[in-house]
TrEMBL record:
The keyword DNA-binding applies. This is AraC family transcriptional regulator. The keyword Ribosomal protein does not apply. Keywords: DNA-binding, Transcription, Transcription regulation. PANTHER family: RIGHT ORIGIN-BINDING PROTEIN. One of its GO terms (molecular function) is DNA-binding transcription factor activity.
Length: 310
């Protein structure tokens, strides 16, 4: 196993940062220029010089919403502008902005603006607006990010799963609720029993099968030879290269409090300057108790070096 230990300061700004920002803004400009027509995420990702998987995950963290939700809100924003300006018929707007029928357009419009398209034509009606996203340099913090790059062979995780939505940042409440539910119903105890570990040993989690609007979340443990996994979901974690970020805290609650901000920094601060791209493999949180009585969480992100940087 190779292990490179590195430190990156998220205030550092280089030519690569400028190129990354330019590429992401080019992708946003492509979306903006095609709001009234077909938008191909593959093309947006190509303009950002990354895979679709990488683009969707990065965009979700940077914009605090999935790219599909951003496109929908931008289209509904433009539709509102046209309606207030005495624009075309509602059925024509529905077609223009990619809806199958005036009814589906009206439902989406009301969900965002709180009024129907017909009501939006009236003077003085308050409407919501989703502004155009723009990426820029942000000099802040100055706290170095410690990480290491490791290569590992594949292994199996087993456990219980749930589909998690990233729309409107629901994952921030759905994931803790899933943990609480599985603690209460005994699922985590059954995982420990199947793994042959005591109740003091923390279990792990994984994010996989990521889509633009969510992912599958697994709570579980590593499967050894002979582990009875018949009543659980089994996840095959392939071998590969991982960027590993550690959290050290007095207890699990302290580690959990630090986890969400670190995930965000990884995707918004580390990836743009790292030279790595997110690989299409499970993202992991591995949890351990330390000898000093504390708690350690390792966020393990699968990475690859893009072909144009090899």
């Amino acid at each position: 196993m190779r292990d490179w230990r590195r430190k990156i300061r998220d205030t550092a700004f280089s030519g690569e940062d400028a190129r990354w920002i330019e590429r992401m803004n080019n992708a946003v400009a492509y979306i903006e220029n095609h709001l009234g027509g077909d938008i191909h995420i593959r093309r947006a990702a190509a303009l950002a010089n990354c895979s679709i998987h990488h683009f969707q995950r990065i965009f979700s963290f940077m914009a605090a919403m999935p790219v599909s939700q951003y496109i929908r809100q931008r289209r509904l924003t433009m539709a509102a502008f046209e309606l207030q300006g005495g624009g075309p018929k509602i059925i024509d707007l529905a077609v223009k902005y990619g809806y199958d029928s005036p009814e589906s357009f009206a439902r989406a419009f009301k969900a965002m603006h709180g009024v129907t398209p017909s009501e939006a034509r009236k003077p003085g009606i308050p409407l919501k607006s989703c502004p155009v996203l723009g990426f820029r340099v942000s000099i802040q913090g100055g706290t170095p990010m410690d990480y290491r790059i490791e290569e590992h062979e594949g292994f199996l995780l087993f456990g219980v799963t749930r589909e998690i939505s990233t729309l409107d940042r629901r994952n921030l409440t759905e994931v803790p609720a899933f943990w609480y539910e599985k603690l209460k119903d005994g699922s985590i105890d059954r995982i420990r029993e199947a793994a042959g570990i005591s109740g003091a040993v923390p279990v792990h989690s994984a994010i996989y099968r990521c889509t633009d609007s969510g992912y599958t979340y697994l709570i579980g443990y590593t499967a050894a030879d002979g582990t009875d996994t018949r009543d659980f979901t089994v996840l095959d974690v392939p071998g590969g290269t991982w960027a590993v970020f550690e959290i050290n805290a007095p207890d699990r609650a302290g580690a959990a409090e630090k986890a969400a901000p670190l995930w965000e920094r990884i995707f918004t601060g580390w990836f743009p300057v790292s030279g790595y791209e997110l690989a299409d493999a499970p993202e992991l949180e591995l949890h351990y108790r330390t000898g000093s009585g504390g708690f350690r969480t390792e966020i393990r992100i699968p990475v690859t070096v893009p072909r144009n940087q090899m």
